[in-house]
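ARCHIVE RECORD
Type: protein–small molecule complex
Small molecule: Muraymycin D2
Source of inputs: curated submission
Record status: active
Notes field left blank by submitter.
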Amino acid sequence: MDDKQRTTANTMLYHLLYPLHTKLSVFNVFRYITFRTIYASLTAFLICFLLGPWVIRKLTEMQIGQYIQEDGPETHHQKAGTPTMGGILILFAVTVSTLFWMNLTNWYVWILLLVTIGYGAVGFFDDYLMLIKKRNKGLSARNKFLLQTVIATAAGLLIYFSPNFNTLVTVPFFKMISPDLGWGYILFAMLVIVGTSNAVNLTDGLDGLATGPMIIASVTYMLFAYVGGHVKIADYLQISYVVGSGEVTIFCGILAGACLGFLWFNTYPAQVFMGDVGALALGGAIGTVAVITKQEILLMLVGGIFVIEALSVIFQVGFFKMTNGRRIFRMAPLHHHFELKGWAEPKVIVRFWIIAIGLALISISTLKLR
Ligand code: 57M
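STRUCTURE (tokenized, with ligand):
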């Protein structure tokens, strides 16, 4: 089955334009996942790029500016008042492009939107409370975790009950090992989604630091979704074939496009931050992509930067508590450590991007290396 056959697509644009294919054969291209991925990415990119200045102006007018923690690195104090909650724009671009270009009869499309918009709403609430309280604290960690868990469990259940979805877990580098988690898969999916969302959120502490690796991870999963959703290629590469997951390729392209458009404004020196509304949503989205494409564990490598940042916090906080105030790093998450060592902000950011690209390449090699 090739990508043309599988997508008796039901996108809005498809409905509008495909009937014309009898008159103009060029409209046949709407059936191809590859074609729709390219234009869906461009749509998301252009929405962020073109609406960015207007959104930044509106956020500034509404005084949606960042409160900076006093105990952070000094260089961050000058960032006070930078408009935040730019993630609203990312969410808008992702939703519009998804509705326009993706096959709306595909179950996975709705699960992806549920998590992305659901986590965006949790983040929005968190950012909003932060603005009302006029300090760098929004929802309590407990409430945030609770809401994230509810949404991720709903997604886990929906994925579990998706037609033809199996509960085997792919272990990178070990083709012969794929444990079947049965019902436990729902809990596993929940952990992947919640964990990734929080890890991306922790990473989002320097200009473009989360946006860059999000683009890299999305492009990497774009490839995995395409090959894993294509029965012949999946068979050839001996990876899990997930019926209908080819459509997720388009969603990954959309994530990458939206982040790229946002990065135009979020790159150093940032004109806007994404806020929790963006960070939680993007993390939840890529976590869900990893589950649906059955490349769950691989996300630890593809999103290695997010993992390293989260681990730095876990170790720092653990060590801090166990030793009554001693530290492993000058400050966690890890990017603060390098800042306090005197690295210029862009140097930390770009070096983290370079590592993310390296990790993505190693991840792609798992298609052959096992
Ligand atoms: C949110 N938020 C940024 C912006 C962004 C457990 C603990 C380690 C948690 C952690 C924490 O709260 N992390 C989550 C991190 C904040 O950015 C906002 O938050 C959104 C993402 N959620 O979109 O709206 C600041 O980050 C900077 N920033 C940029 N450019 C960007 O594009 O420069 C963000 C985006 C912004 C801006 O300055 O204000 C944040 O860092 O607050 N807590 C921490 O990270 C704190 N770490 C800490 O306390 N470490 C301790 C250990 C023992 C827990 C230690 O190592 O000693 C530090 N964070 C800050 N100051 N700001 C501590 C000091």
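CURATOR ANNOTATION: Residues 66, 68-69, 71-72, 76, 79, 84, 136, 201-202, 204-207, 266, 270, 273-276, 279, 313, 316-317, 320, 327, 331-333 surround Muraymycin D2 (CB under 6 Å).
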